[in-house]
Amino acid sequence: MKIFVSRNIPGSALDKLKSSGNEVKISEFDRPLTPEEFLEGAKGADAVLSLLSDKIDGEVVEAIGPQLKIVSNYAVGFDNIVVPELTEKGIVVTNTPSDEVNEAVAEHAWALLLALARRIVEADESTRKGAYKGWEPGIFLGVNMIGKTLGIVGMGRIGEMTARRAKGFNMRVLYNKHAPDPEVEKELGVEFADLDKLYTESDFISLHVPLTDETRHMINKSAFAKMKKGVILVNTARGPVVDEGDLVDALRDGKVGGAGLDVYDNEPNINPELITMENVVLTPHIASATWEARNKMGEQAVSAILDCLSGKMPENIVDKDVWQRRRT
Ligand code: DGY
Question: InterPro entries annotated for this entry (predicted)?
Answer without folding.
Answer: D-isomer_2-hydroxyacid_DH, D-isomer_2_OHA_DH_cat_dom, D-isomer_DH_CS, D-isomer_DH_NAD-bd, NAD(P)-bd_dom_sf
